[in-house]
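Everyone, describe these C-alpha cells:
***
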Amino acid sequence: MKVDRYMVNLFFEIKRNLPPELGADLKISSADLSSAMINVYWSSDDNVIRTLVDAFFRRAGEEWHAQLQPKKRYYRGIEIAEERSPTQSNSSTSPELDKPKTKKRFYRGALVE
C-alpha cells in the first residue's frame, strides 16, 4: 500500500480519535498497517472513526477497500451479509463477557430457578 499525504492526515486523525489503548499500537511505518486499520474499523462503534478508516481505504484503492466490506455468503440462492465480530482485545475489556454463563431453565414458558 502506497501512502500519500492525504492518507497520512487521515491516519493521524484516526489515531487522535481512538482511545489511547487502541491508538498506541498503530504505527504508520508498520508493515501490517492495513490489518491494524481493519481491526480498528471492526472493533470501533464510533461512526466518525469508521468513516475516516473507510476514506483511508478508498484512497488506497478498490482492492484495499474491498477488505472492509462484510463477507457475503449464499443461503438457498439469497445473498446474506455476515457481520464480522470484534477482535479479541475488545471482548476482553467488557466485564459482562468475562462472567461465567449460568444456564436458564424454562418450563412451559416460565423461568424456573
